[in-house]
Amino acid sequence: MLRTAVVLSVFALVTIVLMPVQWLAVALKRPLCRRVPVFYHRFVCRLLGVRVRASGAPVSDRPLLIVANHSSWLDISIITSLAPVVFVAKSEIARWPFLGVLAKLQRTVFVERDRRQKTGKVNAQIAKRLAGGDPVLLFGEGTAGDGNRVLPFRTALIGAARDAIASAGNDRVWIQPLSIAYVSQQGISLGRHLRPRAAWYGKMKLIDHIGKIVRTGAVDVSVTWGEPIPYDGAIDRKILARQLESAVRRTTVAALRGAAAT
Q: Which of 170, 157, 136 is nearest to 34 (CA)?
């Protein structure tokens, strides 16, 4: 109980201080709006006891679209602690109390996944962010999995990369696969049955899951940046999605097997 009280108090204090700073930076379109989320999420990871082991790095070339697997709300803090990304997220998150505000302050692009006719509009927003130099991250599976496997990647939003070529006047966009694997907690390897301690998916209650992470902490996660793919619009997006999915699955499986073997 003491740990929970301390973590929540410190979290609330830092969040209250930084929220108006980020709001002003976004409103004035200052470069600070990219740096504040990185600082904030590094703080969140340390506060919760999330230890990130990163391999590789995001490519420095722009425009850059990052495509990752997804298995927990922790993914947001982990990824942002490593790079100043703009996320693509389902529209329901925008309406969530508090978390929706944080997502908006990070300039998240919201998509209504059940309305395909709006995909073009969303792609245009993503393309605008890419053209402006922001690394944009989308979760290729379109939903959160259990952390034990990588689900098939969806292809619709990868079309934003093609739109970005026209918007930015570039001849290509870089697309980089990113793997996230939760490998242990409290020094215990998270095997197939224990991984829900870190993974949040399906009908699991968010508040309960956050509470468990706050109380226990000490989560170890392996993050692997894959080889970036130069995309000029010529590759079929279904083929591209399979390439990205294969790269993420390969590195995720390797990380999980490596943790199980230690």
A: 136
Task: Convert 1-10 to b/e letters by CB count within 10 Å (16 or more is b).
Answer: eeeeeebeee
Angle, helix 206-216 to helix 2-27, in steps of 10 degrees: 110
Compute the CA torsion angle 212, 207, 255, 48 (nearest 10 deg).
Answer: -60
97 within 8 A of 61, measured Cβ to Cβ: no
Interval 39-70: pLDDT, tens: 999 999 999 999 999 999 999 998 899 999 99
Q: What is the CATH number of the domain that holds 136?
A: 3.40.1130
3-class secondary-structure state, position 88: strand
**63 cis-preceded (ω within 30 degrees of 0):** yes
Vertex 158: Cα angle to 154 and 161 (nearest 5): 175
Q: What separation in angstroms does the CA of 62 have from each of 155, 173, 175, 191, 240?
A: 21, 7, 10, 37, 18
Number of domains in the chain: 1
What the block records as the tokens of 141 is 């599976």
Range of the domain at 27: 2-261
pTM tops 0.85: yes
Residue type at position 182: Y
Decide: 163 and 127 in contact? Cβ < 8 Å: yes
User: To 10 degrees, the CA torsion angle through 178, 183, 187, 189?
Assistant: -170
The residue to which tokens 């703009």 are assigned? 86
What distance in Å separates the CA atoms of residue 78 and residue 135, rounded to the nearest whole number?
15
Q: Which residues neighbour 112 within 8 Å (Cβ) at sequence distance 6 or greater?
A: 90, 91, 118
- Could you read off the pLDDT of 65-107 as tens digits, one per residue? 999 999 999 999 999 999 999 999 988 999 999 999 999 999 9
